[in-house]
Amino acid sequence: MIARLLISPDLEAIKKAINSSLDLNHPDVLFFGSGSKLGIEQARQINKHFSMKPYSAKGRALVLEDASSLTFDAQNALLKLLEEPPEEALLLLGAKSESDLLPTVISRCQIVILKGTPAASLQHDIEKLLQLDIEERFEYIEKCKKREELLHALTIYFREQMLLQLTNGRGIVDFVKQLLQAEEWAAQNVNIRAILEYLMLVCPSQR
Questions:
Q1: Which of 29, 32, 100, 128 has its CA 20 to 30 A from that of 21?
Q2: Does the model's pTM come out above 0.70?
Q3: Is the dihedral of CA 163, 22, 12, 189 positive or negative?
Q4: Which residues fall within 8 angstroms of residue 183, CB to CB, at 6 or more apart?
């Protein structure tokens, strides 16, 4: 079974979605709550967990409420598990944003955007935005009151387009990398309007 990455800026929404899916006290569930240390030792513990037979369930499960706490070394140590999880295994990862996770991790997960989040509500706006010319895009960004949410929603939208192969060519892959870099710039307090206007200039054509 493929790993699922639950995305929401609201950590409580992630916790609620996870709790509705699993009994976190089950002996076959390895659970790390938000605030847990997630380094290389924890990655080894996770791999060992899946190397053993389940006690009573069909398969073993892993829950990381905040996968962004994984160090880069830990993320690399889990790549093989994420790419080829054992049969009947269930891996649930939560994160506020994809920007804190390695692209190699993201590419091995099924992304689930929790309903009611700003990113989910902006998906339709993005489809309209990409049909506009440059001047109209700039005008939209000037009037937009949710610029940070728009940047995050763009990252999610284009990453999904890449995985679904709805857009061919190297351009989409390079643009996703630029979006992830743009989220890092935003975290460093670079002017969000300037970031979005730059992205509109280099965005692959959707017209």
A1: 100
A2: no
A3: negative
A4: 97, 98, 99, 151, 152, 155
